[in-house]
Amino acid sequence: MATLDSKLSSVLGDRTAKALDTTFGYRTVGDLLHHYPRRYLVRGELSDIAELQEGDEVTILAEVFSASTRRFAARKGNMLEVVVTDGTSKLSLTFFNQAWREKELKVGSQGLFAGKVGVFNGKRQLAHPDYEMIADGNDVDAAVEGFAGKYLPMYPASGKLPSWKIAQCIELCIGALDEIEDPIPQFILDKHGYPSLQQALVQIHQPADLESAEKSRERLTFDEAFILQLLLVSRKEKMKSLDAIARPRREGGILTAFDQALPFQLTAGQHAVAAEIEEDLAQPHPMHRLLQGEVGSGKTVIALRAMLAVVDSGGQAALLAPTEVLAAQHLRTIEKLMGSLAHGGMIGAPEFSTRVTLLTGSQSAAERKDALALAASGEAGIVIGTHALLSASVEFNDLGLIVVDEQHRFGVEQRDALKGKAKIPPHLLVMTATPIPRTVAMTVFGDLDVSTLRELPLGRAPITTHVVNTLEKPAFLERAWERICEEVSQGHQAYVVASRISADVSEDADIDFLMGTSPLELASVEELAPTLATGPLKGVRVAPLHGRLSGELKDATMSAFAAHEIDVLVSTTVIEVGVDVPNATVMVIMDADRFGVSQLHQLRGRVGRGTSPGLCLLITTAIAETPARIRLEAVAGSTDGFELSRIDLEQRREGDVLGAAQSGSRSHLRLLRVLRDEDLILTARADAEELLSMDSTLTKYQQLAREFAKVEADTASEFIDKG
Ligand code: ADP
Ligand code: MG
């Protein structure tokens, strides 16, 4: 008899086991039994093509009428289109990058096709349907014969391993399976009315009815959520037990002086978050906190206050920024906010002043040497930098706090490299301006405490966004440039954003091939800047900014823009995060449909940061009702970053939702979808917390402890390690 850990070869023989390994990476019976059907073909329930409605889950019996594969010109890949007919009507089936299926779907052959009816270009179609071809001379019943029940499982398949073959293998495994031990504690199963693991595995593959298949699927989805949350909660607990230097608030130091000089009042939200951070820093265990808040919600001030609290305790803080532009800007902002408090060591500096220094890759050797000395001696209480901060030559006297700005751009190793520079684990504050829905945060950042800034500081002018379609109303683009001229004549500044640096087609732009636009038609910074400067924006000071400029030139351009020596910045998304020029009031985003929803929201956050109202124009050729246009309308219609990030995430694949950093645990997530399964994740989180509070080492739950160890080992190398 077999267990879930038995080798597939022991049940299926070497050849089949090898095929399952090369195709899917499955080695054990458990691996294969966790390969779940996408849907079930119901014997005797076939639909007529003529009656199909958009959104229906259907199975049809049809004959292949034609099949053709076409390559995409603008990007790698191909599309196989197969037209099938049931004698009266036709239906098209599409497969992206699966040209090999053309061999299986021979013209004239019959098969069962199952999928969800969609509509593309006004035609009904099944995208990536499941199918079962019927061998010549067989009828439908004969084709599905050999399957025990009424429900025929349809599996994700490949050319070598078609669905029916996988079903056979699974049937053999189920037949060979000994009684298995359930890792999930019985009291949790009882609470939710879930079947045992054994029942669930049998029922999802060979359901007696759809209801029990559904319940089994829910239980197996729960398993994934539960193990993941168990992992996250236990990591969080473990980090809490590490030692760190407590940095309790000290009155009468640099932080007090800073607060007294601050030209504005903190918002209620800022006060609340500041209190949370203050409490964390006062603990003898490292803080692990995520600070999320809308663009412009005032995260930087909060982070700076935390850094100053650490300086008050005799320590240093490092601020890690994703780009040189942002690091330089952080330096300017922080020096401005601190005033003379940043003049430590200079004559006439106030008593509690410190020094703020910058470390980036493009500095001269002399600048770098100075900065290194300031960091190593502890004279610089605040060290701001890019990944250059991570190099081995950088040393701190007493690194007490690491602030990571725009965390998603930093990888695990980078954070670890910086942490290694502290003798005792430092406190960590991660800031992100991309708000994430609660369960996503719980999954992606499940081991961090989360603080959220929801309100924008008072006195902030509202921002208006319009979608401008230049196909429908070509004259409106001229109008956009006029608006910029008007603002500039009133002393304001503007951004023009393009999706590309140059018109070079080979450039790695994200070409949405389905939109059908040629990359040649896209605006680029290198073309647009001179065209505008000599044309519609004649007489206005225009400058280009993009990632291919030297660090020095980028810096100089940003500084000149901040100093209002430039009126209009024509830029790529390098200005996406953090850039803060309150005098900028208009942003024109070319080919806006090239950008994601959250990205557009981030971009437009660059305007309306002062007291004058902001205007954002989304220029597009996307026609009404298309997904691209709907996305743009959503951005124009809402300024709620949480709502927009949800829309954004809903359109991505799960792997992208969880991010590359979660790839390790992702392989354990076959059924779980963070947005769809919110309730399940919340339940799993609560259950995981409850169980760990009763038995933190899972001593009483050996089987679960083994599962846990397996997932932990698999994910250890890749898992976000913020600890
Ligand atoms: P974020 O980093 O969250 O995008 P910032 O910290 O850069 O936001 O703040 C945006 C702008 O608002 C800055 O110019 C900052 O000085 C200002 N600001 C921050 N907090 C307040 C407040 N409570 N009242 C008024 N202005 C504020
Ligand atoms: Mg900021």
UniProtKB/TrEMBL annotation:
What is this enzyme's EC? 5.6.2.4
Instruction: Please cite one Gene Ontology biological process associated with this protein.
Output: DNA recombination
One Pfam family, short name:
DEAD
Q: Which reaction does it catalyse?
A: ATP + H2O = ADP + phosphate + H(+); Couples ATP hydrolysis with the unwinding of duplex DNA by translocating in the 3'-5' direction
What does the record give under GO molecular function? 3'-5' DNA helicase activity; ATP binding; DNA binding; hydrolase activity
Which CDD domains does the entry mention? Answer: DEXHc_RecG, RecG_wedge_OBF
Give all residue intervals belonging to the Helicase ATP-binding domain. 280-453
What SMART domains does its record include? DEXDc (SM00487), HELICc (SM00490)
- Entry-linked InterPro entries: ATP-dep_DNA_helicase_RecG (IPR004609), DEAD/DEAH_box_helicase_dom (IPR011545), Helicase_ATP-bd (IPR014001), Helicase_C-like (IPR001650), NA-bd_OB-fold (IPR012340), P-loop_NTPase (IPR027417), RecG/Mfd (IPR047112), RecG_dom3_C (IPR045562)
Listed PROSITE patterns: HELICASE_ATP_BIND_1 (PS51192), HELICASE_CTER (PS51194)
What SUPFAM superfamilies does this protein map onto? Nucleic acid-binding proteins, P-loop containing nucleoside triphosphate hydrolases
Q: Which UniProt keywords apply?
A: ATP-binding, DNA damage, DNA recombination, DNA repair, DNA-binding, Helicase, Hydrolase, Isomerase, Nucleotide-binding
Keyword Protein biosynthesis set for record: no
- Which residue intervals define the domain Helicase C-terminal in the entry? 476-655
**What family does the database annotate?**
Belongs to the helicase family. RecG subfamily.
Under which name does UniProt file this protein? ATP-dependent DNA helicase RecG
